[in-house]
Amino acid sequence: MKIAENGSALGDVLKHSPGPRVLVPTMGAFHPGHISLMHKAREISGPEGTVVVSIFVNPIQFDRASDLEAYPRPMESDLAACEAAGVDVVFTPVADSMYFPDRSVTVTETLLSRDLCGAARPGHFDGVCTVVLKLFLLSGCDVAVFGEKDFQQLAIIRRMVRDLDVPVEIVSCPTMREADGLAMSSRNTRLTPEQRADAPRILRTLKAAAELGDVEAILARAREEIEASPLARIDYLSLVDAETLQPVTDLVRPAVLATAVFYGEVRLIDHVDL
Amino acid sequence: MKIAENGSALGDVLKHSPGPRVLVPTMGAFHPGHISLMHKAREISGPEGTVVVSIFVNPIQFDRASDLEAYPRPMESDLAACEAAGVDVVFTPVADSMYFPDRSVTVTETLLSRDLCGAARPGHFDGVCTVVLKLFLLSGCDVAVFGEKDFQQLAIIRRMVRDLDVPVEIVSCPTMREADGLAMSSRNTRLTPEQRADAPRILRTLKAAAELGDVEAILARAREEIEASPLARIDYLSLVDAETLQPVTDLVRPAVLATAVFYGEVRLIDHVDL
């Protein structure tokens, strides 16, 4: 396994690597969800192709300095996990090598990023689009693999690929969950034992509410059951169209019930399809 | 010479074309300036490489519908000129094949595009960046050739390539001029004989003023001499840093004296280096 610490080192390492080249863009702090993305990448690349994992806690997609600061960075165990998953190349740039101080070019998305995490985290998805495009172009990947847990991110990246003619195929993998249903997330390690015990209510609530069949009833029930916990604070709770991500008033087309919930300073997201 | 009318046709045509692949992005209506870019492209590609010329009047970089409407589109003679210049592939997409109706992703530049043509034409350079990135990615070019006449555009594209890690080398060619000094432009054909006779005053004025050695004197003299013509109306006249394109107050670093002048509805730009 080779490690590249900046773009030009990555270019050197990949210069003669065999295709197809499959990228897994991550912020590290791996849990089994990430590992499933790496296995999917290997499945796509085949034994002869090249699997690249990037580990980069991207500062320009954080709207809160405290969240960026607190984001876990267990580099040593992450590298061991990549090695164990049979990854060929790990790209671990520092922020200084990714962004010039007088950086002035950004990729912006104005439609799918309006609601949900976009409303709650201004600038977040522009930061995501910008770094993901950079990682695509630096790695020259043919395919990139993303988790479905961040479903808004996934929709926005597909939109970017479509609108900018980016020659990268996007593949997604299902959300991995703990035995009690909590969506796996690098942020889960920051929960107190009490918060951790309470957090499965998020999925449980979304699932139960989704059965109600009426937009207002679904939203009211879900809000009520999450707010029933003194530990949980809803950031947003929305029922949106699965394609446009705009809030819906009826359930004619496929929809997604999505929420972001704060436990103390830790923000967890989850969603169910309707 | 092959012609592709949408992105997927271009991909097919270029699939097995030999490298290096050199792109000349244009809006058509060729004059000798464009032809010089094609010759430069061939010089870079060598006889074995592939020269691609795109002809696309990009709607999203026009802020005035009248200008978009009036932009000349002499496709037949443009194709003949490409053929004569030994171009391998011409890409002539229609707007519908480049932009989805619900397009929501744009490349934005916030620093170099603030002044000059950026101030006068809101959204113009975001439209330029977006289409140029799309053309780079659709063509998969190794090198792209631009004219120096649009020096702000050139600076912004270089900045985009740097900030987004676009794997394309940018090469520029000097402004081509008529015998009387007027910068060649596709818009020159829209000048009346009277306007055409007056327009060489732009370069003459910039050159003379640039000799004065003092920022305020330069700007005052240039403004005075252009406004001396009843046919000319200044859109902007600025003395900017050659690298940051921000207005300067002294002449310590390399600077550019740049102007945009309206003759009726026709807007002409030119600049001189200091």
TrEMBL record, chains A, B:
Its EC number is 6.3.2.1. ATP binds at residues 27-34, 147-150, 184-187. It comes from Luteolibacter yonseiensis. This is Pantothenate synthetase. NCBIfam families: panC. It is found in: Cytoplasm. It comes from the Bacteria. Belongs to the pantothenate synthetase family. It is an enzyme of class 6 (ligase). GO terms for molecular function: ATP binding; pantoate-beta-alanine ligase activity. Beta-alanine binds at residue 61. HAMAP family: PanC. Pathway: Cofactor biosynthesis; (R)-pantothenate biosynthesis; (R)-pantothenate from (R)-pantoate and beta-alanine: step 1/1. Homodimer. It catalyses: (R)-pantoate + beta-alanine + ATP = (R)-pantothenate + AMP + diphosphate + H(+). Keywords: ATP-binding, Cytoplasm, Ligase, Nucleotide-binding, Pantothenate biosynthesis.
